[in-house]
Amino acid sequence: MFEELKTHFGKLVSLTPEEFAYVSSHFTSRKFRKHQFLVQQGSPVTHDFFVVKGLLKSSFVNEQGKEHILQLAMEDWWISDYQAYFNQTDATLDITCVEDVEVLCLSLANREKLCSELHRIEHFFRKKSNAGYIALQRRILSFMNQSAAERYHELLQMYPSLAQRLPKTLLASYLGVSRETLSRLSA
Predict the structure, then answer these.
(1) What is the pLDDT of residue 162?
(2) Where does the Cyclic nucleotide-binding domain lie (predicted)?
(3) Sheet of 94-97, strand order
(4) Residue 181's closest CA among 167, 166, 165, 169?
(5) How would you list the strands of the sheet with 47-53, edge to edge?
(6) What is the C-alpha to C-alpha distance for residues 103 and 54, in angstroms, rounded to an integer?
(7) Neighbour count for residue 113 (Cβ, 10 Å)
(8) What DSSP string describes 104-173?
(9) Is the pLDDT reported for residue 96 higher than 90?
């Protein structure tokens, strides 16, 4: 499980075997089954999760019972309720397994410790955060400026395997459209 993490870090920073062994010692591995919660609204958020295997969704259910998917995460991606994680407050989102999942978990205390001790780890997380901000901005702008068809085709182009793995109802929710609209778009 840690080989995937080593490869992931290696895309942005160079760590010696000793440094990686030290870094990886701050992570814990967990397995979850399909439909299990990693994070549930109202509960403390103690970890950021690196996805080794599987697919997760971060979502919010409004007062009318409609689910809004904010983020998806598959292999080699990170996911958490970042507001709650960084502020050490209770979750406002649910993070649920769409498939069986294997993750590596990093507590905020361990993240802060690693960042203060190893400049390259701080650099890694800064680069990952920047990429996350960019992705979030793109997603928000797509809802403001693109039609549902354009959002759907962009998703297919950027993440073809993700679209294949998601049930149609979840794909529709992620795109902000009804299941019926998604059926018309994919026809």
Answers:
(1) 85
(2) 30-116
(3) 37-39, 94-97, 56-61, 67-73
(4) 169
(5) 27-32, 101-107, 47-53, 78-79
(6) 9
(7) 13
(8) EEEEHHHHHHHHHH-HHHHHHHHHHHHHHHHHHHHHHHHHHH--HHHHHHHHHHH-HHHHHHS-HHHHHH
(9) yes
